[in-house]
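Final report, closing paragraph on structural work. Over the funding period we assembled a curated collection of sequence-structure pairs, and we close with a single example.
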Amino acid sequence: MNTKDLLLQTSPGRSPHPLELFVRLEGRDEAHFYTQGLTMQDFGSLFAGELQSLDALVYRMPAELLNPNYWEPLTKEAENAVREKMTGIITRTEGDRALLFRADRISRGRLLRDGLDIPVELVNGYIFRTTGDALLKLGQAWSGRHRFDWAALTKGPIPPETLTAVHRDLSQCRLSLREEQMFFAAQDDGLARVVFAKRAHLYRAIEALVRGFVHGAAGVHVGRMSRSALDEIASLADGIGLSADPVRDVTNTGRTVEVSLSLGRTPWGTQPGREALLAKEKALLYYDSISGLWDLAS
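Its predicted structure, as stored:
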């Protein structure tokens, strides 16, 4: 089994990692994938082909990737000095201190920390524009700490109004522009939200997450999932979410691997109108190693 096709392979913390999956299906051109323990290393391996053909806008760059020599205490005077030259500012907290990144004093080639020879362009003082290939390299260098929010767009000119619209859409976790192909927003607590413009990309992410979870929990090879199985999982997780513990909820009988899924217990709550499904409380996902088939009983 190629682990490049799996998620939860480089997740920090507990190992094997628990399964958390929340889905929102917003029409044909917008699909939400929320999970825990998602790293850019795993995500980048899974979607490298797509990302390399896109441009990227990073709206929240992890502080650890920026040049550490240009942080200073946030004061009104320093903020005003940056805003005289830049539209926006970059800040972070360190304990009870607020720090400001002096983007007005730094050359383009010195934005990132030493050792990161990755081309990025600072736009409006707080947006980092780069290529999809460079974004993958940033993801490999990221430890998973701090916020990392980016948008991947089809290649082409990006006028100022698009920068504003993408920032708004990313903050509201929605797609409104034809150019928007993927959104990625990671929290410091390990939770991540991804929005895809293509349903096929959602299904690839779900398959990689479930197979990665079972591989880690049961320690066995598991085959690919059919489109009908992915349809069922996505439909069940839509608006309520699925979760499982790698020790308590996974049973390996030798021939089958059975996963007891809890409904409606993910960190993202339940979407209005989906509460009736919580009466079931549980669903059973199982894999037959003889036939190589997956099935979901809900």
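The mean pLDDT is 94. The radius of gyration is 21 Å. We thank the funder for supporting this effort.
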